[in-house]
Specification:
Layout (H helix, E strand, L loop, with lengths): L6 E6 L4 E6 L4 E5 L15 H4 L3 E3 L2 E3 L8 H10 L4
Antiparallel strand pairs: 1-2, 2-3, 4-5
């Protein structure tokens, strides 16, 4: 991928959904539940904790250091364009 996407804005939409806006204008509501596997993501299964996300280094991050690469989120957003 020659384009390195970054997330410019993110808004909680309930459950494990976050609406993200990328630097190229692509925006989509993404379900993060499929990524909540493994020890670092365990606290995020509590939706109160999940909502504590913030943007750091161009991606969605949580206080415990958990994050998902912006390229991964961008690929998911692009794959859902027709939805």
């Amino acid at each position: 991928m020659s384009f390195l996407p970054t997330i410019m804005r993110a808004e909680y939409r309930g459950g494990y959904l976050i609406h993200v806006v990328f630097s190229d204008g692509v925006e989509r509501t993404i379900d993060f539940l499929p990524w909540l596997e493994g020890p670092v993501f365990e606290p995020l299964k509590d939706t109160t904790y999940f909502q504590r996300f913030f943007l750091e280094a161009g991606t969605v991050t949580w206080p415990n250091g958990a994050d998902i690469a912006p390229e991964t989120l961008y690929e998911r957003a692009k794959s859902n364009e027709a939805a």
